[in-house]
Amino acid sequence: MAQINIIVLTLVASYLEEGSLTWYHYSIRLVDVAQGIIAVGVGSAMLPALSKAVAGSDWAGFERAFVGSVRLAAALLLPAAAYLAVLAQPTVAVLFQRGAFSAADVAQTASALQVLIPYMLGLAAIQILKKPFFALERRNELVVVGGLGVAVTGFLGMRWGGSMGVVGLCGALSVSTVLQATAYLVLLRARVEGPLGLGSLAGALARMGVACLPAAAAGFGVALLGDWHEGPTLHNTLVLAAAGLAGGGAYAGAAMVLGVDEVRSIARRVGGRFLRR
Question: Minimal CA–CA distance to 12: which of 154, 110, 148, 116?
Fold first, then answer.
């Protein structure tokens, strides 16, 4: 259904101003890299534990697997969202500005990319939320909600695309995806006999969100040293890399201070691998 959403809006984008298809395509590909690598992997890893918990009516185990998976995915995706929010233009300029792809195209693609941040997080949530439905053998509900989501995407895309261009298309995709994720969560809460641990999740996600603030500030500050209208120069490439490293370091430090266990665990594993080498 997510792919159908993209196809529907691709059709709408073909009727907009010249360049819209390219801006839309590049922005979608960038957010898909982040959510695809993280959310799909985490969701696939959680399915066996969920299925085992359902088979044994172990709802406490179901809750642990669900909460742990959401926290791990969020610990990686929220800083990715912060990165895109403040470094969209530098990233697009370094990756794509060459040939006929001008600085004006960079600005349009970067704006679309920023509007797609809720889509990235919403689709990542769907990738994780759909696994419990598989474990509970309620796949039909996924299809129904997904079909309604496609209808919402098409309706909003035609309305907003005509007035706001590619940014309106991306806004329609973000709104539709977040609504689908919300619907899945409401349905899942009704289908599971035990708690989902949403209360503990709220506190953990809040700490991760706070940790993203210094990361965004650090990345933005370093990015001021670049001249992004020049495109992928060596100087800009180095500045973008430094901005990413500064933001990542700031997030890791803040997250560990705030007690985000997932970041601590990742840091220990990475550090352990370097020590073994």
Answer: 154
